[in-house]
Amino acid sequence: MSIWNTLIGQPEVVEQLRQQAQLERPTHAWLFTGPPGSGRSTMARAFAASLLCEEPKPQRRGCGVCKTCHSVLRGTHADLTHFSTENINIKIEQARELVTKAQDRPAVGRWRIIIVEDADRMPERTSNVLLKAIEEPPEHTIWILCAPSPVDVLVTIRSRCRPVTLRVPHREEVVKLLAGIEGYPEALARHCASLAQGHIGVARHLVRSAEARQRREQVVRMPIFLSSVPAAMRAAQELVNIAQAEADHTSKERHERELQELLRSLGIAEDEQITPNVKAQIRQLEEEQKRRSRRMATDTLDRFLIDLQTVFRDVLTIQLGTGSALINTHLTAELHDYAQRMSPEQALGHLDTLRLTRKRISTNASAKLAFEAMMCSFIQR
Questions:
Q1: CB-CB neighbours of 85 under 10 Å
Q2: φ, ψ for residue 34 (rounded to 5)?
Q3: The whole model's pTM is what?
């Protein structure tokens, strides 16, 4: 199946990229923008695969069946560098490494392609490192930057990139992908697409994991049944514990593997005494791992807050009689009862509280205290 056939919605963007892949000299720098769930990185990888595709006929590039297409989509192609960060910001040293990589000639394909996810995480000093490389790139290099919106990228870089604007796909498009292309049961696909609000990555995660669906169910039911301060404190602690446990579980094996790789690269045997210089490098690695774990836990908590927002969005839909479909359709009865216990002004206030909590946890504020304050505000007086 052609790569282009697996990209749902946005046919005008697909056609634009398909035509560029057919050219002998495509545009050398691109900026893919769109909200979370719009498929920025997926579209970037598909475009990279079509640019490197082995298909000799230009109009068929992006065939999806050749060895090159498969290796690009897996992220293993020798001429593709797909960079993403798990830190708050992209470091200047990492940007310099990308610039150096961009100077290399392609090993096996026509182009060397550099994809930079989260380009909005580049401080101005880091962006300036990339600027010259994007402004005057080697003739064999193509840059693809991804960010939520154009204004999140330094204007001097933005002005030198060709823009591609993506949108979150409609729920029916996500259902078509999950049920029609990937083969999941339609009822489950429709349920998960609704809960994910069009976010393809979240919908895939939910449809593949019964545990993820069960955890989301636990989260969205919390405010509906809160009745006391102790219950609110327990609910806040439970969410923080879940997020931390997920981060620890995901990170444990990776952290151990990174430590062993570091020791091996330094030529340190398993029982060999570690020198002070090596200890310093191990401490640096441990600090990076702690920062990554904190970000993973924060990202999980942020997802919980987004899920909770759907509850009060549904409550307002019921209270105002807008006729819009509910997101949490499986909780229709509970939501109608909950909507009768508060005013629309209170529901809007709770949405403001959720927005404020999302802002707080993105800083150095205590997530536990932020969630305790939020949960206490949900208690029915």
A1: 16
A2: 165, 155
A3: 0.76
Identify whether the C-beta of residue 95 lies closer than 8 Å to the C-beta of residue 129.
yes
137: left (phi over 0), alpha (psi -120 to 50) or beta: beta
pLDDT digits (tens, 9 = 90+) for 307-331: 999 999 999 999 999 988 899 998 9
For tokens 């430590």, what's the residue?
A: 259
Tokens read off for 325: 């479909």
Please, are residues 192 and 213 in contact by the beta-carbon 8 Å criterion? Answer: yes
CB 220 within 8 A of CB 310: yes
Q: φ and ψ at 162, to 5 degrees? A: -85, 125
How far apart (Å, rounded) are the C-alpha atoms in residues 339 and 331?
A: 12
d(CA 63, CA 2): 4
334 contacts 224 by C-beta, under 8 angstroms: yes
pLDDT of 270 reads 65
Rounded Cα distance between 125 and 11, Å, is: 36
Q: Is 107 exposed, middle or buried (0-12, 13-18, 19+ CB in 10 A)?
A: exposed
- The tokens describing 329, both together, are 């359709």
Query: Is 33 in a helix, a strand, or coil?
Result: strand
What are the structure tokens assigned to 328, written together?
Answer: 């949490």
